[in-house]
Amino acid sequence: MALPPPDPEFVLRGTSAAVHTLQFSCGGQEPDFPILFSGSENGFVHVWNLKTRRVITALDGHGRKSVYWVETMDAKDRLLSQGRDQRICLWDLAEGRTSVTDSIFTENVGFCRCSLLKVAQGRWLMAMAAKSLEEVQVLELPSKTSVCTLKPEVGAKLGMPMCLKLWQLDSGSQPWLLAGYEDGSVILWNLSMGKALSQLVCHQEPVMSLDFDSEKAKGISGSSEKVLSIWSLNEQQNLQVHKIHKLVNSGISDITIRSDKKILATAGWDHRIRIFGWKKMKPLAVLDYHTATVHCVSFSDHRNPSERVLAAGSKDHRISIWSIYTET
Amino acid sequence: VCFAPGGLDCSISFVSHVLGKVCVHGRQKEILSVLVPHLTELTKSDCIWQRICWRLLECVPDRWMEAVVLGFVQRASGADVLSRLLGNLVVKNKKAQFVVTQKLLLLQYGYTTAVLQNVLGYLSLDSLRRALLIKVLQELLETWGSSSAVKHSPAEQQQYISKAILICLSHLKEPEIESCRQELLASMMAGVKCHLDSSLPQIRRLGMIVAESVSLKINTDGPVLKFQCEEDNETRELKSLLVQTPPCRVVPSLPDDDRNERADAALPVVLESNEKPHAAACVTPDEQSDAELDSDDDLIPYDMSEDKELKTTKAPVYIRDCIEVLTGSDDVDKWDATIKALESLIRKNPAATREVSVELAKILLHLEEKTCIEGFAELRQRAQVAVLTTDPIPVAQYLTSQFYSLNYSLRQRMDVLDVLVLAAQEMSYPKTRGKNKNSSAQKPCIQLLPGGDSSKDWRRIVDERIKSKTRRFAKGQSQVEQDSGPNEFNSIAGHFFFPLIQKFDRPLSTFDLLGEDHFVLGRLVHTLAVLMYLAVNAMAVTAMGKALLEFVWALRFHTDSYVRQGLLSCVSSILLGVPTEHLLEDMTEELLETQSWLADVVEKDPDGDCRRLALQNLLLMENLKKKLETVPS
C-alpha cells in the first residue's frame, strides 16, 4: 500500500509576488541558522531564517524588476542576484550589511539564468547569456574578466540560450559548459578552446531547464513538452540520448538533482513537484500543494542528511518546504 | 492404357470418345484421378506425349467437351500443368473456349480459388491465349459493374467474380493494360458506384477492394483510388490474389516422385520457405534482457494515483447551464467539458432533466461537432439515450416526429433510430442500470427517500432493531437477492413503435423511404424488429404485432436484400414476442399467408442470409404450433 504523498513541512508566505528563484545556505555551524534566499517578481531578494521561518531582510537592488537568479558565493556572506534590469549584482551580506558591492551590466534581455562554478579558492567562473542573441559569455569572478565567448557556428539557428550549467569533474580539472537552447538542443562547450564539442537535439520545444551529474556523466533536461529527456556523455565527449520519460502534463520550469545524486525534483507548469529516483528515473512522488505554476525547486545543503529539505517557489507567491527521502 | 511411343498418327479418337462418354456420365473423378497424374508425368518433358494429350482432347466430341474440360481444369495441379495438358485447346475449339471463358467464370461460381488461379494462369501462359485473357477481363468487369448483377446475384457469386478479376489483373502485363486502359477505367467507375450503393457491407467491401486494385494497376504513376475499408480475413485474402507468386514456374524442377493430386501443390513449398525466416526473426527480441539490477529499492515511492491531467475548465453542474453552453457559448473548452459531463448530469438529475427534456433532445439532435474531441458521436448518443430514458414519452414523441420531417440528413434519421433502440434496451433490462430504487433500501445510512417509500423505512428500522436484539448462534450464508426492477419499457413501447410505423409510405421531398432511401428503410425495419422483441409482455404487444405483420406484408417483395433481412427478423420478433394464443386467435390468416411466403423465400431468394432467416421463422412457427398442441386447452 503506497502512502499518500506528504504535506509540506511549512510554507513561507510574505513575498507578495511570484517566486522565481531559490537558494539555500544551510551549511553554517551553530549559532548560525539555516538561510534561504528567494528572488521574486517584484525585484526583491528575500532572506529567510529557516528556524524562525521569517524574513530577515529584503534586498532591493534591481529597480523593482523581476529577480530570476540568486546564488551564494561564499556561503551566506556574498550573494549574486540577476534581474530583468539587465544587471547582475554582487551583495555583501556579512555582519548584517546589505549593500551592493559590485554589478555587471549584461545588456541581455533574455531569461537565461547564469551558472556559477568555484574553480579555486576566491575564483569563480560565471556563464551568462551575452548581449548578442545566441552567445554565451563566461566571466571570471571577482575580476570580471571575460574568459571566453561561446558563439555557435553561423547558421546554426539555435535561438537564445535558455539554461546553462558549468561543471567540472573534480576541482582542479577542466571546466565545461552545458547550454540548452531555444531550438531544443543541448550543447557541450569546451571553455579553453571555445568550441562546441557535441550537440544533441533533446526536445522539439525550447529547453527550459537542465541539470547534470558529473560523476555519472548523465544529465536531464525539461522543456515545455510532455517529456523529460535523459542524456549521457560518453568517453568521446559525445552527448547521447539515454532515455525519454513521459509526463502526465506538459511543461517543466526547473529541474534539480540532489547533491547526493539519489533523487531529483522537477517543477512543473501543472502546479506539481515531481520527485524521481535519479538512477533509473523511477517516479517516486508527486507533491501537490501549489495553486499556480511552480517556477523553481532547490535542495538544501544541510550537513546533517536528516535535516535536508526541498524548497519550491511558485507563481502563487508561496514557497513550500518539504522534507522528503531524508533517511538515506 | 499404354501407347506405342513411335507412331504419331495412331488413332486416339477412340480414346477421346471413351473419355468423353465416361466424363459426361459423371465419372470424371474416377477416370481423371488416374489419367491426369499419368499425363502430368508423361508430358513433363516429352513433347510427343504433350501432342498426344492435346490430340486426345481435341478429338473429344463437342457434346462431351464441357464435362472433360471441367474435369481437367479441376484436377490439374497448376496453371502450367493445365497448359501442358490442354495446349491451345481453347483457341482451337469453340466449345472449349466457351466453357473456359464464359461458363466457368460467369455462369458458375462454385469452384475454388485454386481452380480460378489455374484457369487464368493457363490463359496467361501462351501468347495466343493472352488475347482471350484480356477479353475475359473485360467481360468480368462488365458483369461486376452491372447494377442489376450487384443487386440480384448472390454474394458468393459476386465474390467469385471479384476474385477472378483480381487474378486476371495480376497476370496482365504493362503493354496489355496500356491498350485497354480506358475501358477498364470506365467499367471500374460504373461498377464501383453500384457496389457502394448496396446496403450490404460485404458487397461494399468487395467493390472497394476491386476498385482499388484496378486503379492501382492502371495508374502506375499519379494518384490511385484508396478507400478506407476495415481489414479482415476476406479482404486480406482478396488482396493477396493480386500478387502472383511464381511457384508455378518452379514445378517442372521438382523431383519426379512428387506426385501431388492437390491443386495447390506448389504453394506449400513457397509457404515453408517463408516460415523459416519468420521464425528466425522471432528469436532476437527475446534476447534483450535487463542485466542491470534495480538497486534503488531503498526509495519507496509514494502513492501517485492522484496525478492526472490538469483540467483547466470546470464542467457546468446544472442541466440548464449545459443547455446554455451548448446553444450559445463560444468558449470551446467549456463546450468540450459540457459534452463530456452531460450524460452523467442527466442521469443524476432526472427531475431537472424532465423539465427541459424536449429542448435538450432537440439540441442534441442538431448538435454538430465543434471541436475534435474523441468519441463525440458516442458521447452525443449516450446523452440522447439518457434524456430519452429519463423522460420517455415526450422525447419519444419528439424524436419519432422528427424522423419523418423535412430537411434532416440520413445520418440524423438513423441516429434517431439508434437512440430509440438503445433506450428501449436499457429500459427493458433494469439490472444493467446502476441506479435502482430498491438498492437504496439495503444501504445502512439513512437517506431521504421519496414519500411513497416511507413504508420501507419503518420496516427497515424495525428489522434492524430485531436484528440487534436477537442473538445469532450461527450465521448462515447470506443470499444476495437479485435486484429486480419493473420493466419500464412496457408502458411506453407503443409510444416508440407506432409513430415510426405510421408514415413510412408517405414520401417527402427530401426523404423517400420507399424510393432512394432504401438504406434507411432497412434500418427502420431492423429497428422495428428490435422494438417488437423488447416489447414482450407489454400490454400493447398484440396490437404492435398485428401492425408489424401488415407492414411486413406490404414490403415483402422489396429488392434490397438488407430490407428483406430486416423484414424476416421482424417476423421472428413477432413470433417470439406476441403470446402464442393471441397469435393464433387474432392473426390466423395472416400467419398462414406469411408461412407460404416464407416457404417461397427459402427456395427462391438469392441472398443466403434471407433464406436462413426464413427457414428459422418456419421452424419457429412449427415449434409454436407444437407447443400449443401439447398444452391441454
Automatic annotation (TrEMBL), chain A:
The keyword Aminoacyl-tRNA synthetase does not apply. InterPro entries: WD40/YVTN_repeat-like_dom_sf, WD40_repeat_dom_sf, WD40_rpt. The keyword Repeat applies. Keywords: Repeat, WD repeat. Pfam families: WD40. WD repeats lie at residues 31-58, 200-241, 287-328. PANTHER family: GUANINE NUCLEOTIDE-BINDING PROTEIN SUBUNIT BETA-LIKE PROTEIN 1, TRANSDUCIN BETA-LIKE 3. This is GNB1L protein.
Automatic annotation (TrEMBL), chain B:
One of its GO terms (molecular function) is Hsp90 protein binding. It holds the Pfam family Telomere_reg-2. It comes from the Eukaryota. InterPro entries: ARM-type_fold, TEL2_C_sf, TEL2_Regulation, TELO2_ARM, Telomere_length_regulation_dom. Keywords: Cytoplasm, Membrane, Nucleus. It is found in: Cytoplasm; Membrane; Nucleus. Belongs to the TEL2 family. This is Telomere length regulation protein TEL2 homolog. It comes from Casuarius casuarius. The gene is Telo2.
